[in-house]
Amino acid sequence: MNSYLDIKPEVADALAKGLPVVALESTIISHGMPWPDNATTAKEVEQIIRDAGAVPATIAIINGRLKAGLTGEEIDTLAKAGQSVAKCSRRDLPYVVARGEHGATTVAATMIIADMAGIRVFATGGIGGVHRGAQQSFDISADLQELAHTSVAVICAGAKSILDLGLTREYLETQGVPVLGYQTDSLPAFYTRTSEHSVDYRLDSDTDIAAFLNAKWGMNLNGGVVIANPIPEAYAMDPAKIQQAIEQALAESVEQGISGKESTPFLLARVAELTGGDSLASNIQLVFNNARLAAGIARELIA
Ligand code: PSU
Ligand code: MN
């Protein structure tokens, strides 16, 4: 057992008994949604996973300890503190741990801690990727490198088109990361069910996805898998409206010289502001939808 890691008793018990567990990230709590929606969403998503027969493990750093599984109070702490909590990707973990601070984990850092705990399935909203203009800025999320190396399946609603989805696909292909579409041939673009890009393989059931994961990891082909689950039809947004908000947010980020780890949170917050409450409601619903699928996959994986 890693001496920096605390596994919540409920989660440790499930893992010891071989019961299904689903990891959840915390950057979405501190940096991805406003208070108090972030706290209620984080707790509701845990309940959805429980109702679907799996144990949730929300991942974060609390007072310098890596946590696989948070208490309600810990979720509230991260939710209230918001942007003042450090956004932690792989490179940030040692700093926050050494200083005994709180940290909100990105997809990359959540995968690292899930893997340490022995959790193979992780549900979130959207992954990081290759940013638009990366040919100049070199802005490529560390999430993609983590997916290349760390054996955790990430269930998401695709990626927002604040990213260059085509280059993100190319990068994942080079790194050997499979992109699966759950009941879709098209790569979902977070707020919308489709994009002009395709997935590598369409699989239509959690059983088929679990068989894919068992084959990959059974052959010791280490690394992650992206499982793209389209936003439910009822919550999908008008592509033109979203596209316009994204273009504006991107233009403002260039004007204001936003770069590095600030880039994604800035773009997410601006897109949310520009689209009003609609995008927040969609964001919440797609996370719920991903949690349900993840619980199903986690159950099949151990079946
Ligand atoms: N995309 C979203 N919502 C999010 C994120 C990305 O639609 O909340 C967060 C995730 O935690 C992801 C991180 O891992 O942003 C990526 O940040 P960066 O691009 O700085 O690697
Ligand atoms: Mn970046």
Question: What does the model show?
Answer:
There is one protein chain. The chain is an alpha/beta fold and 303 residues long. It folds into two domains: 1-119, Indigoidine synthase fold (3-Layer(aba) Sandwich); 133-303, Indigoidine synthase fold (3-Layer(aba) Sandwich). It has 13 helices and eleven strands. Strands 1, 2, 3, 4, 5, 6, 7, 8, 9, 10 and 11 form an eleven-stranded mixed β-sheet that branches. Helix 5 links the parallel strand 5 and strand 6 (103-105). Helix 3 (37-51) packs antiparallel against helix 4 and helix 3 (37-51) runs parallel beside helix 13. The radius of gyration is 18 Å and the shape is globular. The mean pLDDT is 96. The site of pseudouridine-5'-monophosphate (PSU) has 18 residues, from helix 2, helix 8 and helix 12.
Distinctive features:
303 residues, alpha/beta, Indigoidine synthase fold, 2 domains, 13 helices, binds pseudouridine-5'-monophosphate, binds manganese (II) ion
Q: What count of domains describes the coordinates?
A: 2
Content-based structural category: alpha/beta
Number of helices: 13
Mean pLDDT: 96
The hetero molecules present are: pseudouridine-5'-monophosphate, manganese (II) ion
Low-confidence segments: none
Query: Strand-residue fraction?
Result: 5-15%
Can you summarize the main beta sheet? 11 strands, mixed
Radius of gyration over C-alpha positions, nearest whole angstrom = 18 Å
Using the alpha-carbon principal axes, give the shape: globular
What's the CATH class label of the largest domain? Alpha Beta
* Strands, total number: 11
Second CATH tier, the architecture of the largest domain: 3-Layer(aba) Sandwich
